[in-house]
Amino acid sequence: MRHCLLLVLTLINFHAFAASAMPLKNIIQPYPNATIEKQQKERKINYRLVSSSLKKVNNVIKADTESWENGLLLRTLYRLPEGHSSFSAFDFFIQQLNARKVKPVFQCVRFSCGESSYWANEVFNESQLFGLNKEQNYYIGESDENGQTIYYIVYTIKRGNHRVYALIDQFYVDKAEILASAKISHPEIQDHAFDTLTELYRIVKDKWDKAEHQQLIIYLGSKPLDSFSEYDRMTETLNEYKKALDASLSSDYINERFYRIYVIQDVQQPSFAVKNYFVRITVL
Fold first, then answer.
1. How many CB atoms lie within 10 A of CB 149?
2. Strand boundaries in 174-227, DSSP class E
3. Per-residue pLDDT reduced to its tens digit, 121-142
């Protein structure tokens, strides 16, 4: 009986493609007398849709429920007039979404959302949104309008300097282009032998640095196995590699949302003889 173990690590870093002909329109009415600090219209690759509170796990900011989509983004960042609270702004925008029959997906207030710095820096990349945890609100809702899926995101916050900001995202999911893009990909496959975590990480990190704007699929496999005892030993070893590699990538600021790790078996061996382990890297 011959077995082979395989560990799959998917690293994803997308590049922007040409702007769509589909028009964007600001469906949400602005907050009265608010100042528009920023307006943004662009195609987004791997836009992060968060549907739970944020937390830090092994120095990585993550949510229990989140997804990433390609599509078109319309973003507006408001600074509210003096005397208006983050809660009044939140209610103002949510009332509009309720009137449009937008389906709520997730909502949180105050401390239940997690640290405001996580939302400001990790999710929205808007430094003005770093404020008081007790003065924050978050909402994500989904709507299907004429066959077009639209996500509505509202985040309001009061800063330590008493300024109040509201961010409104309208995200138009464009799945057709994702499929079209995938169909024209021509994978390039390379195999490398390794025996230590240091060798493995050097190979993966080197490919990650060189393969900008592309998708990498990295397979970590073992030599052919002839017994259950070997199978069990290799399973344990590869799971240790999985844990160590995950920690190394995180410490090098490669966010968890850019990769996934799986263990499978029975894969084709590389063309060269494998002493212990091999890594197969596919550039899509």
1. 15
2. 188-194, 215-222
3. 888 989 999 999 899 999 999 9
DSSP state of 50: E
Closest Cα to residue 189, out of 254, 268, 242, 263? Answer: 268
Question: What pairs with residue 103 in β-bridges?
Answer: 142
Helix (H, G, I), strand (E, B) or coil at 78: strand
- Rounded Cα gap, residues 207 and 256, in angstroms: 17
Burial 25-44 (b: 16+ CB within 10 A, else e): eebbeebeebeeeeeeeebb
Closest CA to 139 of 128, 152, 129: 152
CA dist 148 and 172 (Å) reads 7
With 0.90 as the threshold, say if the pTM is over it. no
Let me know: does 19 contact 92? Beta carbons within 8 Å: no
Angle between helices 228-251 and 197-210 (to 10 degrees): 50
- Beta strands 188-194 and 103-109: pairing type? unpaired
Distance CA 158, CA 152 (A): 21
- Tens digits of per-residue pLDDT, 169-193? 999 997 654 444 434 344 566 788 8
- Domain positions in the chain are 5-13+180-283, 35-173
Cβ-proximal residues to 236 (8 Å cutoff; 6+ apart), any chain: none
Q: How far is CA 73 from CA 25, 49, 278, in A?
A: 10, 12, 41
